[in-house]
Design a protein that fits this description.
The protein is mainly alpha-helical and about 325 residues long. It has helices at about 15-30, 55-70, 90-95, 100-105, 110-115, 125-140, 150-170, 215-220, 240-250, 260-290, 290-320; strands at about 1-10, 35-40, 80, 145, 175-180. Bound molecules: adenosine monophosphate.
Length: about 325
């Protein structure tokens, strides 16, 4: 049984890239019982590393949970948790900090970028990659789906685990970073050189999973193409058209047929995206009407994963020299 941890930040709205790159592989893994056990973790503690609004954070955490459920995450097969409701994450975090060098944390690219952007820098921004290591290691994860932006943090988790095992005895599973099967990377529709992302200030190139159909139609209609006038996949020469084709393939689960114009391509993409998102929006609306239900699913998820997490913490405490 392979154990897999997938994280989602409760900041901003989830988008089509999250659905295709992370949520659908998670749902796909559920269809292979006995091979992969997944935990879907909403990283609410990571959201505290930058300026945040408490009311909005709580709402976003529940919203991300509801969107994951609406997209097909089945809490009986995938443990759906809020990071902060599993206190073993933070307990192990401190122990791992004691096995991490200051220089190792300070050289993380994300820390350097975010801390040099101006304004106050929270200490947790420096240490959060170690917390991410704790999230991964505490659940004995074998695999972690990571995008390029998180691969340095995964390498840190691997380095900490390997060093800890060598110094204090075999304690942690050393995790592997993976690109999930069929997880296309979706680019920004207004700027196909960059990945579709929650943190891009402009929403002009982003398809939010809860966006109304008119907004989606408009974003796709305005998607950047080129002057070649031929519908074909050519990542270097025609990145915008290639991205639209990738979205069409991912949303309709079939190879796109012959398309004569960019207008025809955009119409197909709009229909395919709408067909994929309409049922998710409808299920989301039902779930959002009952936040208590979503909250209970998170509480149950935490209860399910805590015994294993607690065992990892006990093992770590014993290895590092703490009393029972
Ligand atoms: P985030 O909440 O931004 O950390 O992303 C959550 C998950 O979605 C991660 O597994 C990312 O790799 C994945 N993801 C984010 N943006 C994209 C994208 N544009 N295309 C494909 N996958 C993405």
């Amino acid at each position: 049984m392979t154990r897999r941890l997938t994280g989602f930040q409760p900041t901003g709205h989830l988008h089509l890239g999250n659905l295709i790159g992370a949520m659908r592989p998670l749902v796909g893994a559920q269809e292979r019982p006995g091979t992969t056990h997944s935990i879907a973790m909403i990283a609410d503690l990571h959201a505290l590393t930058v300026e945040h609004d408490p009311t909005r954070l709580r709402a976003n955490t529940l919203q991300v949970a509801a969107v994951l459920l609406a997209a097909g995450v089945d809490p009986r097969r995938t443990a759906l948790i809020a990071q902060s409701q599993v206190p073993e994450h933070t307990e192990l975090h401190y122990l791992l900090e004691c096995a991490t060098g200051y220089g190792e944390a300070a050289r993380m690219i994300q820390f350097k970028e975010k801390s040099s952007a101006g304004g106050p820098v929270r200490l947790s921004l420096l240490t959060y990659p170690v917390l991410m290591g704790s999230d991964i290691l505490v659940h004995d994860s074998d695999q972690v789906p990571v995008g390029d932006d998180q691969s340095q943090h995964l390498e840190l988790a691997r380095a900490i685990a390997t060093r800890f095992n060598a110094r204090y005895g075999d304690t942690f599973t050393v995790p592997e970073g993976i690109r999930p099967e069929n997880a296309a990377r979706i680019m920004d529709l207004a700027d196909p050189a960059r990945k579709m992302s929650k943190s891009t200030p402009s929403a002009a190139g982003r398809i939010g999973l809860l966006d109304p159909p008119e907004t989606i139609r408009r974003v796709i209609a305005r998607a950047v193409t080129d002057t070649a006038g031929v519908v074909r996949a050519d990542p270097a020469g025609q990145p915008g058209v290639t991205n639209l084709l990738a979205i069409l393939r991912a949303c309709s689960d079939r190879e796109p047929g012959e398309l004569s114009s960019y207008g025809a391509l955009k119409r197909e993409v709009t229909d395919a995206v709408e067909a994929l998102l309409a049922p998710i929006r409808a299920r989301y609306a039902e779930l959002a009407a009952d936040p208590g239900h979503v909250g209970r699913i998170l509480t149950e998820g935490a209860a399910r994963v805590r015994p294993r997490a607690a065992a990892t913490v006990r093992r770590t405490r014993a290895a590092i020299g703490l009393l029972d």
